[in-house]
Every structure is written in C-alpha cells, then in structure tokens.
C-alpha cells in the first residue's frame, strides 16, 4: 500500500496548517484527489437529489433564534440542501446553516484576511491561534484533538485572501467538542498575549552559545522554505504576483522566507485584532445535526462582541483593474542541482475578468478550460505536449476561486532559444481556436465530463459538506449570495441551449474576450541557476552575521535567554489539569463493531472463467463503478518497471479505430472516466493465522482497469474498456517519448516536493518483495528507469515497442488469462440489475479461453517473482544508509526497520502506540522543537515494517538522534499512562477515528475488494479492532522495546549536498547518490 501526501491544493498559494495525518491511514485515491482539485469552484452536485428528501429537510429551514435575524432561506436542489443565511444581531457575524442527510457534519469559520506584505502574517496566525486559548489551556489543543477525536477533518488553510478553520465529524458529541475548541481558539487565542507562540510558529532567532552563529527557526519559516525550494511553486507564485500589481494578490500570504523575519509580534497581534472579529467572519454548518443547537453554540462566542467597521468593510478585497496596455515580461532565476540540465520554465498568465462573470459565463469558462486543458488530448495541452519544446505543462489553466479568475499555461524543461517559440505557440493556438472553434465531439465530451462530475459529487474521504462550503465561499467571501453560486442546473441548461443554437461560438467569444484580445497578460520566464541555492543560503548567513554583529553582549544574552525559555516551554508537558480543559470523548462513545461492506463473489460467472465480485450498496446515485483485474504474475521481472509506462500508453495513444483524440472524447462523452493502474499486495496464505507477520512471499499482482458510468451507458463503457485492453495502439514512438519526458519531470518534482514519500518507498524495498516492486514502479529507482527508457525510446524504438507488446501478450495469454481475471462491480440494487446483461456480454467478449488453463493458486504457492526479486534485492537494495542529493533547502529524513519478524504477531495495540508516537513525541520533537513542517512514523501490522519520517525539515542528523530516543519515550509513556487513563483513551479514540472515516461508494467497494484480495476475514478485523480498543499501558512498553531493538534498521534521506556534508561531520555517514 503506497503512502500518499494529501495535497490540499485548494487554490494556488494556499497553505495548510497540519501535514494531514489522515494521509497515512485513509489515503484518498488518486482519482478522488484529482477530482477534488476541480471542486474548488462550482463543480459539485448530486445525481439524484429527489424532491422527497428535500421536502423533509425544508423543516430545518428558517429556524428562529432570538440572537439572529434571518437574511434568506434557500433550497439548493442540486445537492438536496436546505439552507438559511443568518446575521447575528449583536456582532454582525454571518452564519450559513445547511441541512442535508449527510452524517459527516462540517463546521467552518472563515475570516477575510488580505495581507499587505509577504511576511506571511495570515499564515503564521493560522498556525498560532490553534496553540491554546482562553478556555483550552494546553500548549496545543489542536494536537490533542488530532490525538483523541473521531474527527473526519481537522485543519486550517490560508488562502491569498482568507483564512478558514474547518472541523468535521460523524459523531455529534465529538462535533460539538471540536467546534468549541475552534471557536474559542479563533476569538481568544493565547498567541496574542504570549510572544512565544509567534516565535515558535512564525520565526525567531536561535542561539545556544554566544560563539555559535545565529539561526532562524520557526514552523512557517521552514514550511515556506520548503515551498520556495520547489521550482514549480516559484513559477506559480511569480505568475500570480505578476498579474496583480496593485492588490493583495500581488503579495504572498503564505510568507516569503526572506520577508518573514520582518514580522514583529505587535504587527501579528494587530492583524488578529483587526481581522479575527465576528463582524468579519463567515460561519458555516452542514449535515444532519440540529439547527437551533448550531445557532446557540455560536451565540455563546459571538455575544461578547459588537459590530466592528474596521474589520468589515475594512477587509474588502479590491478588484485589480486591467492596467497593462501591452503584455509584460518578468524574468527570474530558479535553483537547479549540479547535474541538472539547464532548462528554462515559461508561463503565460492572463487576468481574465475585472468584473463578476454571469453564472452562465462562469459555467462556460469552466467548460472552456476543460476544452483547452482538461485531458491529454485537449487542444492546448496536446499542442504544447507534442511540440517537443519542453518536458511538461505548467500553469494548470483556469484558476477561479478568488475574486478574479486567471488563466496560466506554459512549459518547463524548455531550451533557452525555445522560450519565444513556446509563447508564440500558445498564442497562435488560442488565436486559431478563437477563429475556427471546437469540434462538436470535443464540446460534447467536455460538457459530459463536467456534468458527470457535478452530478456525481464524489469527494472521496473529503467531507462533502466542506466541498459545499468551499463552493459557497467563492462568492460569499465577496459579499455575494453563498447559495446562488452552487446552483448549476439553470446555467447548465442555458449553456446547452446556446451550444445547441450556435455551436462553438460561445467559447470562441470567451477566448477572444478574455485571452486573445486581453492585454493584461504577463510572460514569466524562469532561468536556471546552479549558484542560486548557495547564494540564498549565503545571503541568509551574512544577514544573520550582520544582525549578530550589531548586537551587544546583553542583546546576545537576551537571545540565548529567550531561546532557553522557548525550548523549556516546548519541552514542558501540559499538566493533567490543562489537558482536562480540552473536551474529549470516552471509550464508551465508540462503536465496538467493525464496519463491513457487502460482497458477493461468483467464480467463473456464466462459465466465463472470470471471477465476478459485486458490492451492492444502498445508493450509488445511478452510477456503476467497475474494476477489471488482469493478472501480472506471468511477466518477466525485468518488465515490472515498465508497467507505469505501459499503463499510460494504454490510455493515451488511442485504441482500435480511434486515435488518441477520438478515444479520449469517446471516454468523456459516454463515461465518468477510465483509468489503468497496478495493484500489488502481500496476501495471507490459506490456512495461516491472519495475525502472523507476513513474509511477503505470497502476493497478488494485478493490472486494474477502473471505469465508471451511469447504468444506461455501461455498454459503451465496457466496449471502450475492452478495446483499450486488447487494442491500445502501443506503436506511437513520439507520444511515448513525450510521456517519458513528462513522467521523468513529474517524478523529479515529486521527490523534491515529497521526499518523505520517496524515502519511505525506498526503505520498504529493503525488506519485502512487495516493497521492492513498489520501489521499481514508483520510487527513486523508477526515475532511473525513466531515464533509460527515454534513451531506448529515442535510440532503439523497436526494442522498447517489442517489450510493451510482450507485456500485453503475456498478460492476455489466450490459454490462462481468464483464470487470473476478476471483474468487480459496485452499484446499488437498481444499477446491478440494469447492467447485468451488459456485464455478461462483456465477460463473453474478453480475451482468453473460458475453459483454459488455471493459474497457480496465489494463496497456496509462492509468487513466481519472489525468487528473482530476492536476488535483485540483495544486490540493489541492501540494508544500508543512503543519502539522495537534490536541489533543496530542506531535508526529508527517514529511518526504518522491522519491529516484528516473520511469524511473530502484531496486536492492534501496536497501531495505537505508533499513532501516539506520531502525534505526541514526534510532533513535539521534530515539528514543534525541531522546526520541521512534519514529523511522523508509519507501522504496518502485516509486514512489521516501521519507519520514522520527517517532512521539510531544517535538521538532518539532529532528527536522526530524535528517532533514536523515541523508543525510550514510548517506554516512559507506558508508566505515565498507568497514572493517566484518559490519555490512553484519547490515543485509542484517535486510532479508531482513523479507521472509521467517511467513504464514497467507490471507496467502499474498493475497500471490500482489497479485503477479499488479501484473504482477510471479518473475524480478523473484529479481533484487530478489539485489540485496539483494549490497548493497555503494557502494550506501550512492549512496542517501545521492539523499537529499541528495531531489526535491520537503516536510514534514507533526501537533502542537499551541503546538509549531507554537515551530517557527515556529525558522524552520519551514508552512501551518497545524486538523483536530480
Ligand atoms: Zn502552514
């Protein structure tokens, strides 16, 4: 199972408080995350919002409360949502109450916080207000909630113009607890009276001995250093700045590391006083909870305040007028590594509108973006990719979540002499489209794709109510109606009618008006610099040296004293009395039973030879979610690392009679999407005790083709899936070269931006076959593979093509392939019965003999890859400390080993201990005291693999020391927990919370499928849950001892050359490798 960082890419330049822990326990599917990025604006919806359901909900509309006046009642039928907008009479706060049948309840409070400079004051404040408040007296109630609540979402984000605090829970008592803590935090934070918070979360000077150099420390300071280490992020920040020369969007609300140290405590406190006022707040509730209770709980906080005009209208966001009479050009440098090729990045950026769009226009602009950029065969994306002028697309097209919409597009990996050609190509393509228009098939495909997404409203594990809030906020924040913005039926119908009568004209007009004839546009060019990283570090060093120079002895002593005070404060445990102020659930509030999902398995259904698996859920809104699994075990081990390329080629080069563009349009027009991925997982051998640690020699390895469509379109969906499976056009040399270039560039960015994930995959590869396979396909070694494949594609295409064809021929082997296939269907009763005939037709037409040879039983025999891979592992992934050098100003530090060995048994209690370590000791030591953005650990009860990881870390060897002391901290905790049963309960509750999150229908089906595939029983899951619920202090001691004796432990680090050199001086010697 791959670890994923949950990138909350809500909008460009948005910062998020906590590196989401949920990433480790409930990683949303890639598909869900990708979709989420389109939810920022109005693309949300529900397929079957029946009027009966709505009628029931209208009862919760217009509920009266003496402290509030009702501004407006409104029904958003698209979502089955009954809403009332209130104004709090005394404070002027606005409150939107949304009633739906969703038990995943959401609360949010948003302030308009436009910054005037790039000190990052909104971002630092966002972190700081969660560090204790009037009623909740611990240092960090936020962490306490992370540790011991059933929350399904708990975070905060800083946008360029607003700061949002959001909590969600399916448990009502928990929900009110969370609201109380957040509401008290935003209005009465400790941070405005105690400068230590600003120092810790923002920035401070650190000095332990007078002769040491001064250094800057701070969580946000370091987080933003990580952000500015990413060239993509530099480009997008420069792009946004360039088109907003006069407004708040021209500065960085997240904070520029060079500017952050200009922020004083007084400015910080003033910013809070001005903007964190009820008058300037927008409060949001959604779900199935009681409306009156919502109004009551907020009145408790709001009633202490009177209206404040300086907060609102004082926070109004000004429109940026279109002031450029001709396009502007900005050239900046970005840092690259020693061995990196010297290529440029270039983005063209437009400020689209300087007054509000009409609803129909806004809908049309969203479709236009999809037509231009939405898929690999969309005209602008395709033209740029095929031009050979660069490695991968930048800019991402439309961004319309702020007051004004922008459009950005460009390329990176561009030769200096080609920069002008890229610009010329973008402009000429747009001009051409504005003259000639789009083909009707392209429009139909984009329209259906967006409409499907709106109606499906599939947010994965992300709370639906939060998507709704983000949609509402994109208008509400600018004093427009929060609910009008969410109604898509009318503008959609209007747009359809317009297309019906005049075809592509509506889009041509938009391109002319907002892009082609719009001179408020900039070109941002980023040029490579090998010395920039060093220069910036030197600049910081000399700045600090100058500061030290200017200080008297007394000044220095004062810095030393403050450093000590802060460190002492950070190291001091909260008293039990302080902890008791933060409200918590009790163990009795938890559900004892595991959640099971329906599954029905039919072997060789209709004598097809294919196993069919069905998950019949309550409602899937008329949609069928299907997965075809094709066995991979027949592949040669040397072809495994080709599978990511093979999966992409299947989807992106055309199939059968359809070329790339036609195929993509067919998919868009008839389905909700098709994708191909690879699933490898260790399984429990038949007859084994499921609690046993797996040796990982029994595996299932499948190519998975996933698709979704409404039940009346499954015939088309299945025809397309079959065509892609058997007839994908593998023979497309130029397309494959483009893909490889792009994949290489993406992998590099992924390693630099999420090095913790890369090193975790790397470390896993040292212990188990499955881990090694994951590394081959998605780790650091995949980057090497991509470089080799690119060379082969360019110089010896026939050989690469033969390899791709060999993969297909092997997995579709006529004699045996059906025996390794499964077809998995998730849908409600009506969907299942409607599609039955098309399913049987599909099974009939699949390749292979229905009565062919049987594959081996993967639950009885070792997987054929095991022996050859073990040989490779011994040679290529030995247990040794490795350091990977990339251009960066932060480190990602990992250490791992086996906490349990084959044949031993890990109890569910180990999950609780690992989580306790992650949210306690590691959070305190790596993040709070170390100044890293994140510090965590992972533990697998299946393989026994345990790892420590840090994220955007200013330290390297110090963090390794922190890891080495972790075991003792866990053992010590065992003693404390004996005296503090509440703390133990919190750790258990948090662990259960991780397991019981909200899921979308397709996630439920997928969970059920993987449980079946790994051969795991419901009895085992219940036993595991019981072990979690019954965790004792003794379990902490036991696990701590295991950490102390971590077997075969080793280190992996992604960092800069300079940091490795420093670590070497501390005796941390690693085998070094330049990878980017
Ligand atoms: Zn942050």
Automatic annotation (TrEMBL):
Record key words, sorted: Hydrolase, Metal-binding, Metalloprotease, Mitochondrion, Protease, Zinc
Coiled-coil segments on the chain, per record: none
Residue stretches making up the Peptidase M16C associated domain: 526-789
Keyword rRNA-binding assigned: no
GO biological process, one term: protein processing
Pfam families: M16C_assoc, Peptidase_M16, Peptidase_M16_C, PreP_C
Superkingdom, taxonomy of origin: Eukaryota
Compartments reported by the entry: Mitochondrion
InterPro entries reported for this sequence: Metalloenz_LuxS/M16, Pept_M16_N, Peptidase_M16_C, Peptidase_M16C_assoc, PreP_C
UniProt keyword Transmembrane present: no
Cofactor (UniProt): Zn(2+)
Molecular function GO terms recorded: metal ion binding; metalloendopeptidase activity
GO CC annotations on file: mitochondrion
Broad class of where this protein is predominantly found: mitochondrion
Similarity annotation: Belongs to the peptidase M16 family. PreP subfamily.
Protein's name in the database: Peptidase M16C associated domain-containing protein
Organism of this sequence: Cylindrotheca closterium
């Amino acid at each position: 199972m791959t670890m994923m960082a949950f990138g909350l890419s809500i909008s460009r330049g948005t910062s998020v408080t906590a590196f989401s822990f949920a990433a480790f326990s409930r990683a949303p599917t890639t598909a869900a995350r990708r979709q989420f990025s389109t939810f920022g604006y109005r693309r949300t919806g529900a397929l079957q919002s029946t009027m009966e359901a709505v009628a029931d909900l209208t009862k919760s509309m217009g509920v009266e409360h003496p402290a509030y006046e009702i501004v407006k009642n409104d029904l958003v039928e698209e979502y089955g949502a009954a809403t009332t907008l209130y104004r709090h009479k005394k404070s002027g706060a606005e409150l939107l109450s949304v009633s739906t049948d969703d038990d995943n309840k959401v609360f949010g409070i948003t302030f308009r916080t436009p910054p005037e400079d790039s000190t990052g004051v909104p971002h630092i404040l966002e972190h700081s207000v969660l560090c204790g408040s009037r009623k909740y007296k611990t240092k960090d109630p936020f962490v306490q909630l992370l540790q011991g609540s059933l929350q399904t979402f708990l975070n905060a984000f800083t946008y360029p113009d607003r700061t949002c605090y959001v909590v969600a829970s399916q448990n009502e008592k928990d929900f009110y607890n969370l609201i109380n803590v957040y509401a008290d935090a935003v209005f009465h934070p400790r941070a405005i009276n105690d400068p230590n918070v600003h120092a810790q979360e923002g920035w401070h000077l650190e000095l332990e001995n007078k002769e040491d150099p001064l250094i800057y420390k701070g969580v946000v300071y370091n987080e933003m250093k990580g952000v500015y280490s990413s060239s993509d992020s530099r480009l997008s920040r420069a792009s946004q700045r360039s088109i907003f020369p006069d407004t708040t969007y021209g500065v960085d609300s997240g904070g520029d590391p060079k500017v952050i140290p200009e922020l004083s405590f007084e400015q910080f406190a003033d910013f809070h006083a001005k903007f964190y006022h009820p008058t300037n707040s927008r409060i949001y509730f959604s779900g199935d909870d009681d409306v009156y209770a919502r109004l009551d709980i907020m009145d408790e906080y709001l009633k202490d305040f009177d209206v404040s005009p300086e907060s609102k209208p004082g926070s109004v966001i000004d429109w940026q007028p279109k002031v450029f009479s001709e396009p502007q050009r900005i050239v900046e440098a970005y840092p690259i590594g020693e061995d990196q090729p010297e290529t440029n990045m270039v983005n063209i950026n437009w400020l689209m509108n300087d007054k509000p769009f009409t609803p129909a226009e806004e809908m049309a602009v969203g479709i236009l973006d999809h037509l231009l950029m939405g898929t690999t065969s969309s005209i602008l994306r395709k033209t740029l990719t095929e031009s050979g002028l660069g490695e991968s697309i930048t800019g991402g097209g439309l961004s319309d979540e702020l007051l004004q919409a922008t459009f950005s597009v460009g390329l990176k990996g561009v030769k200096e002499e080609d920069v002008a050609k890229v610009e010329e190509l973008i402009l000429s393509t747009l001009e051409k489209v504005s003259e000639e228009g789009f083909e009707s098939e392209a429009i139909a495909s984009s329209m259906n794709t967006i409409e499907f997404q709106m109606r499906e409203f599939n947010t994965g594990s992300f709370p639906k109510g939060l998507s709704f809030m983000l949609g509402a906020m994109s208008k509400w924040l600018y004093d427009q109606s929060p609910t009008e913005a969410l109604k898509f039926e009318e503008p959609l119908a209007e747009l359809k009618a317009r297309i019906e009568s005049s075809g592509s004209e509506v889009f041509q007009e938009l391109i002319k008006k907002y892009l082609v004839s719009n001179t408020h546009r900039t070109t941002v060019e980023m040029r490579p610099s090998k010395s920039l990283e060093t220069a910036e570090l030197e600049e910081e060093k000399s700045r600090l040296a100058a500061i030290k120079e200017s200080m008297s002895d007394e000044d220095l002593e004062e810095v030393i004293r403050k450093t000590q005070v802060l460190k002492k404060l950070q190291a001091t445990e909260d008293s039990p009395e302080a902890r008791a102020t933060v409200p918590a659930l009790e163990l009795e509030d938890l559900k004892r039973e595991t959640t099971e999902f329906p599954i029905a398995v039919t072997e060789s259904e209709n004598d097809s030879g294919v196993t069919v698996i069905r998950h019949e859920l309550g409602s899937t809104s008329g949609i069928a979610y299907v997965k075809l699994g094709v066995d991979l075990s027949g592949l040669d081990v040397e072809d495994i690392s080709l599978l990511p390329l093979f999966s992409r080629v299947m989807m992106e080069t055309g199939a059968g009679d359809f070329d790339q563009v036609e195929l993509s349009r067919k998919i868009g027009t008839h389905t909700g999407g098709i994708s191909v991925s690879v699933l490898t997982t260790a399984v429990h051998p038949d007859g084994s005790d499921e609690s046993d640690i797996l040796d990982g020699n029994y595996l299932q390895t499948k190519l998975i083709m996933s698709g979704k469509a409404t039940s009346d379109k499954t015939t088309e969906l299945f025809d397309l899936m079959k065509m892609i499976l058997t007839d994908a056009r593998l023979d497309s040399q130029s397309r494959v070269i483009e893909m490889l270039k792009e994949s290489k560039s993406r992998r590099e960015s992924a390693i630099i931006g999420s090095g913790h994930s890369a090193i975790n995959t790397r470390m896993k590869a040292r212990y188990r076959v499955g881990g090694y396979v994951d590394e081959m396909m998605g780790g650091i070694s995949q980057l090497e593979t991509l470089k080799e494949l690119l060379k082969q594609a360019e110089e010896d295409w026939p050989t690469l093509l033969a390899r791709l064809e060999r993969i297909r021929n092997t997995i579709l082997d006529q004699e045996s392939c059906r025996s390794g296939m499964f077809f998995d269907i998730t849908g409600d009763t009506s969907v299942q019965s409607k599609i039955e005939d098309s399913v049987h037709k599909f099974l009939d037409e699949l390749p292979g003999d229905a009565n062919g040879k049987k594959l081996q039983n993967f639950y009885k025999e070792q997987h054929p890859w095991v022996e050859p891979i073990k040989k490779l592992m011994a040679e290529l992934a030995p247990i040794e400390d490795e350091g990977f050098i990339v251009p960066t100003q932060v480190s990602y530090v990992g250490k791992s080993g086996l906490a349990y060995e084959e044949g031993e048994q890990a109890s569910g209690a180990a999950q609780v201990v690992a989580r306790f370590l992650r949210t306690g000791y590691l959070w305190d030591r790596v993040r709070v005291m170390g100044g890293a953005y994140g510090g965590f650990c992972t533990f697998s009860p299946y393989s026994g693999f345990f790892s420590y990881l840090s994220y955007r870390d200013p330290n390297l060897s110090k963090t390794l020391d922190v890891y080495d002391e972790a075991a003792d901290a866990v053992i010590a905790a065992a003693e404390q927990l004996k005296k503090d049963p509440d703390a133990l309960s919190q750790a258990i509750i948090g662990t259960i919370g991780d397991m019981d999150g909200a899921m979308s229908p397709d996630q439920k089906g997928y969970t059920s499928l993987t449980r079946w595939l790994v051969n795991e029983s419901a009895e085992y899951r219940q036993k595991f849950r019981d072990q979690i619920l019954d965790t004792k202090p003794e379990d902490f001691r036991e696990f701590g001892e295991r950490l102390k004796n971590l077997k075969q432990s080793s280190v992996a680090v992604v960092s800069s050359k300079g940091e490795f050199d420093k670590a070497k001086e501390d005796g941390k010697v690693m085998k070094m490798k330049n990878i980017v």
